[in-house]
Here is the input.
Amino acid sequence: MALTFCQVPDINSARPRPICQVPDKHLFFIRGSTCLQGPRIGRPKYAGGGATAGVGACGGVGVGRAGVGARRAGTIEGVQIPQVDWDATSTVSVLTTRLLGLPAAGKRVMVGLAGAPGAGKSTIAAALASALERELPGQVALVPMDGFHLAQSVIERAGLAEVKGAPETFDAYGYVALLSRLQHEADHTIYAPEFRRAIDDAVAGAIPVTSEVRVVITEGNYLLLDDAPWNTIRDLLDEVWYVTLPDESRIGRLIERHMQFKDSEGTARRRATVSDQRNADLVEAHTAGASLVIRYR
Here is the structure.
């Protein structure tokens, strides 16, 4: 079955554009590690380490995960990922339409937003959840990764206070377990933790995901890391959207956020440019697996 590739540098319409087409004009779409063929969904087969582009399990073209290393957001081994500029009205409509059109791999449609600290993930996730709630009342849940911060007392005892926000300061296995439950269990309410900046700590059982919920949005820095157990997250989500923001604006947002809750300007600036920046560098080195790039403004 011959496939013809075409580049997809942008997605500024409500309808995702195909990146390949077979002779009978049946369209295929590449969405991260998922290959879609009409109403059917399948996972592409990978040929070991490194990025691959080959025939996927559903007969379409699969894009494999790239290896470790920095890559320009929006491009994986030369394959251009759809990109969209953020706008609080028109872009929400585009993304909502895209999300509602996804066939679920599990019992719910599950989409994640990844990106560096301060890139705008929480803002976009909240806007999407609000828009979807109007379409699907009572059927949308927002479950951020930040709820899986280790307790501040645990972080301090472990001597990790200066690197709070790094991967090792999260209960990553707990987060993966929650996503797996949300994908496979839909006959009872599942409770998720919530991080509250006012107390700089997580609160257990703060987010109920009822059996009526059909769409789950999650967001966090490390959804695309390739270290265990983070590397299992991509296959638990139907798509991951990578959020970018120029460093000057992103760091400014972080300083403002830190000062809003407890830090002096000097402390806030040091956090934003040292520990937060270290985490940002890690996140930006792992963009492989993203289905879409959102350029936040």
